[in-house]
Amino acid sequence: MEMLLLALDLAGTFVFALSGATAGVQNRLDLFGVLVLSFAAGNAGGIARDLLIGATPPAAISNWHYLAVSLLAGTVAFWRPIIIERLRNPVLLFDAAGLGLFAVAGTQKALVFGLNPVMAAPLGMLTGIGGGIARDLLLTEVPTVLRAEVYAIAALAGAAVVVIGSALHLPATAITLSGAVLCFGLRFMAMRWGWHLPIAGDPEQPATPAPKDHKDDNARGL
Amino acid sequence: MEMLLLALDLAGTFVFALSGATAGVQNRLDLFGVLVLSFAAGNAGGIARDLLIGATPPAAISNWHYLAVSLLAGTVAFWRPIIIERLRNPVLLFDAAGLGLFAVAGTQKALVFGLNPVMAAPLGMLTGIGGGIARDLLLTEVPTVLRAEVYAIAALAGAAVVVIGSALHLPATAITLSGAVLCFGLRFMAMRWGWHLPIAGDPEQPATPAPKDHKDDNARGL
Amino acid sequence: MEMLLLALDLAGTFVFALSGATAGVQNRLDLFGVLVLSFAAGNAGGIARDLLIGATPPAAISNWHYLAVSLLAGTVAFWRPIIIERLRNPVLLFDAAGLGLFAVAGTQKALVFGLNPVMAAPLGMLTGIGGGIARDLLLTEVPTVLRAEVYAIAALAGAAVVVIGSALHLPATAITLSGAVLCFGLRFMAMRWGWHLPIAGDPEQPATPAPKDHKDDNARGL
């Protein structure tokens, strides 16, 4: 179980690192810059969570596997961008899976460290979206998660399942799975149907899907 | 007294969160983005201070009241921007009051955690200005506090009063009040008279008020 | 020895603070903004390292000397930019020396705090490059270290010497000196010969020096 969780965590890191590396390649960073973007996109969420809950040094710093996986993703994206391009659809699915995994794992870690349950869910969400925010800020772009689609909300929903299930003393494996699956499902459907949150100043905007705007901003470059 | 301080702290958080939410609305973020901006503008200063002095988890993370107040401010700004517009002048006053309160409260917390007094004042100032810096960076703008007016200096002056008063063992209530009032007063007069700090490369710029430039950059959007 | 290290550390802080202050002046920040940039450029790398390894409060916060040195550099750059201009070449040398010093000192501190040796080297590198990244992000520019030249790599090479030497139980003074000298030498030669890392999408770019592009982006403004 422990090994499985670590493997899933590293898989999520790899996919997020790919998104960072791809954004770095598109912005014509040099090899070092691409690798920094990979590490930041793959690990900034978990690092921010660990700093905030007082779990220092963060797992991504104390355990070298996260760095190795991030560098691997960055190297692939740098030298073989064509592979990423071909894998576009699978990578989007992995990204949604990584989001779900990070959200539930982040929430559980926050609960283990004694955080208030109300705050554990946002911290789980932060674990999922923090990497994308760091990636965008390093490229001086407004984080796409702040203005696009159902991405953070999916992570928050998955995190909420863990918090509620934990408060009800349901079995840990079941609530972890349920939360991750809910997040993945919401994210998948949002991509499939182009769901958006309301934007300020658009009172007439339909709550239903905006059919023409399927562009997936959160998965930019993937 | 404890309750009063918490109430004042939450009031300051609310006002700063309003400034973040309003900036988010103006940048056409979606609802989630506006709420993130609210939380960041209301709490980033205190979170940065707590991380730097080793007070983990930060108060804004361990206590859910800060999140609730921030979300309330964000929701109001998102759904009823007209209210914010009408309250423009009161909100500017609250912003100055929040600045004074955050600066003195931040300084005191740093002193309680055993920080060097010389560094406690900048940390108090950081508590006051950190939220605005986070708000601007998330929107990829150069933080207005770095180039506009007497804002950070007012916070620093209030913080210095606390440090000096504490070194002289003056009564805590008196120095807290004096520091907050000094910061509020300086900020208020700076807004009233358009005071600026010198800008590099402008050796001839008068040290006295620049009468035409009353625009209040720090309170952007309020 | 202790005193010598502190003196060298403060010298590195001073030089990095100069780079921040100069960038602030060029972006027409006010005096306060220039001083913030000075402090950020001089200390953000060390602060990030200390937060990540759990050494709170960070040295730059608990010890007021770092603030004083940063403010001194900022004041000089603000009031006497002509001095910086004249010292351009010496400052570039000091910058390379500061990089080497920060990289080895940061690596050693990470090892002392029990970090995995594989991660101690990147943390040493972060100590050296973090200030420049903070400086650029505050000015909403993509960090130059992500797309320019051999800068971070030189820091990483110096850090690696410390990690390897430490694993082999070589004398601390010797490995510290070797690491710093290696970093300085690599950086100096990269400036001298215009070395670059490969950039994505430029498969034909020669690995040898690009003779016309001697512009030193990392030392922007110095």
UniProtKB/TrEMBL annotation, chains A, B, C:
InterPro entries per record: Gly_transporter (IPR005115)
Bilayer topology: Multi-pass membrane protein
Start and end residues of each Glycine transporter domain: 7-79, 93-164
Localisation: Cell membrane
Residues covered by region (Disordered): 202-222
Keyword Transmembrane helix included in the entry's annotation: yes
Positions of transmembrane segments: 61-79, 91-112, 118-138, 150-168, 174-190
Entry keyword Zinc-finger: no
Pfam family, one: Gly_transporter
Signal peptide: none
Alphabetical keyword list: Cell membrane, Membrane, Transmembrane, Transmembrane helix
Principal location class: membrane
UniProt feature, compositional bias: Basic and acidic residues: 211-222
Any GO CC annotation of this UniProt entry: plasma membrane
Family of this protein: Belongs to the UPF0126 family.
Protein name, as recorded: Trimeric intracellular cation channel family protein
